[in-house]
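Morning!

As promised:
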Amino acid sequence: MSGIYSKDFSIVICGEAGQGIQTVESILIQAIKMGGYHVFSSKEYMSRVRGGENSTEIRISSKRITAYVDRIDLLLALSEGAVDHLKQRISSETLILGDNQHLNSVLEGYNTLKIPLLARAQQLGGPIFSNVIAAGVISKILNIPLGVFEDIIRGMFLRKGENIVKKDIEAGKKGYEIGEELIQSGRIKVQLERDPKITDELLLNGTEAVGMGCLAGNCKFMSSYPMTPSTPLQMFMAGKGEDFNLIFEQAEDEIAAINMSIGAFYAGARSMVATSGSGFALMGEAVGLSGITETPVVVYVGQRPGPAVGLPTRTSQEDLNLTLYSGPGEFARIIFAPGKLEDAFKLAHAAFNLADKYQIPVFILSDQYFAECYYNLPSLDLDGVKNEDYIIKTSKDYKRYQFTEGGVSPRGIPGFGEGLVVADADEHDEEGHITENLQIRAKMVDKRIRRKMETIRREAISPELIGSDDYDVLVIGWGSTYGTLKEALNNLDDNRISFLHFKQLYPLDPDTQSILKKAFKTIIFENNATAQFANLIKLETGFEIDKKVLKYDGMPFSVEEVTKTLEKFMGEL
Amino acid sequence: MDAKVFDMEGADVAWCPGCGNFSILQTLKNALAELEIKPQELVLVSGIGQAGKLPHYLKSNVFNGLHGRSLPPAVAIKAVNPELTVIDVSGDGCMYGEGGNHFIHNIRRNPDITNLVHNNMVYGLTKGQASPTSRSHFKTNLQVEGVFLEPFNPLSVAISLNASFVARAFSGDMEQTKEIIKKAIKHKGYAIVDIFQPCVTFNKINTFQWFRENTYYLEDSHDPYDINQAFKKSMETDKFPLGIFYMNPSKKTFEENLAVYAGDKSPIYQREFDLNKLKALMESKRRI
């Protein structure tokens, strides 16, 4: 058996938690990009610190790729359970590499090749080196120059000392030797076209793209409580305090976190929280606080399957409803859901400006899959970074909730000007003091939701249409499914189908209905069990989407899965 | 400064006649005036309850937030703008019940704010239920057989966590209470003042008279820098001591611990956004 790959190659590394799969991933994605190839990686893992079976998929391609595939061309099994864990994705074409002891129990019929990772690691001083050796094997198979590989090792392990770097470079060389033998054996050949321009591109994951957008939005305060999969964003921001004048505080709970952030915005610092399902549920009351006090706040929700604890490390799109309806009472809000890194950056940036402009909560819905997937991209649009200063210097007769045409009252902050800034969670008058005057109450509700929403709706970000605008069939998606749906449509290569991707979920672009109505048939893909976005579209536009494809097992849609579903859907037209 | 600068003309005060809150309000105005704190430099932060309404009756910046959640925004406001004087005004239900977790962790955090907790040992706004500080056997419309939970002891909790300033006052003694509040505001770090106060409508046990008879001021010999002595005093419940139990001025405040204020002392909201830093960060993502 031998496999020759000239366009697109998919590698999966599988092993137990604590074995260092992430190290192999970090080395390889850098090596692939620096080698001049397009790269994409995503991971699935169990909620445990040691043991279990975790895997990372790394795709390498001569074309831009941003999606997860089921197909495995090369499996690196670092544990005995790896093959069993992935058996549904392994085909007769899959070449399985691993140590003798990890492949011993693998049944016949699999295309296995035993390589001496642990034995070579032992020679270097211990099993800890087997990861770097493995990375070397794959790097060699991918034709990445040894020099590039060594630079990466040096960059990654420098802080561990020169001795470690030397040993790891040695380990990498051993890997290259094994890789060379493999190539010579004729069992596998990867020959992809290189593009040197890629070496200068950015390599980011969904979390970093959002984080850079938050920094671009001049976020100066973040308080949060750790919860997967939002913790990586907290870590990203916590590390940026010095350069960006940012305070990060780990709060005692999610309730404190969001109340702090609202307090910070009140005092003049743009602020945010990051959380996930249950943690966000705890924040619900304070979302209402932002609503009634008209104090902006940006809330990043990394979705995972619930309810309650659910599947902590898996992915989902289940918390749209929670976000849409969080907080008692009625008030304006905006919900974004990026599906590509460029949008993650832009939307996070926009979230701060819009929260500040309209004095409302703005939500960024991400999920485990998107937060943790890496790929290369040319750049981010930093020239487009502009932050409006919406804070006014108050005068003596300042009224925090002065009635205005558009519902937005100029926002002052304490200590800046001669006025006093009174924010109140009770129903209040224009000054901000408690009132039970019911005429004022009704006017305040109009201000907070009706007047504000009118403008916000007009400014809604349009869904992105991919494909011809003369379509029969419209595939609909939102948030993280972007890359997968796009690649599946490419595979289909059928000009009757176009793809409509929503990055602003609420409020919807007023043109949504007419865009949908143009299609003869519509089909939506969502990572939840109740078609939450299709229901929102129905509620807002009256439009019923014909077919809802729902996946809620904790894994993202794969390109193959979507392609097959669409082929069948087209066949039945 | 004249305490009248803090008067709110025409405020429709919702408290019952004779409520201990009136004297706390006036005492606070007097203390602020003597400390020459201008309304513009002051932020009163509160939650919900009868005490939580106080900021509406005192001319200042106000953040009247959620029940039990006054401390988190208070901490953030001070952190964003350390030039402001931030006073959290709360009650026994709001601070020790709903907000207990924040109470504990903000003692650990030690922001430079003052926390006044009106303690009348009963829920007033919801009409007469037990509060965390209600004494044993106190009968209410919900605790129909009488309270049997151990009363919450905020001072002992605070001292055990090495809070930086711990005091108790009685609203009936405006002069002493004012002095305690002034010291609390001037103190650098988190200062908790638990203020005994009668609820004339819903607490017929712990009345004005009861507080008079069941409290006394700490002796001059009390050493507020001795944590063990302070803790012992805070555990006394046959007669409740009043005054400053404990001070630990050596603790760094939350703001002092923040890296953003290590060199530059200007409030962070005033600092300009630096696009070049972001550019450098992005460029770093092109390299290994």
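Residues 29 and 184 of chain B are 14 Å apart (CA to CA).

Hope this helps with the figure draft.
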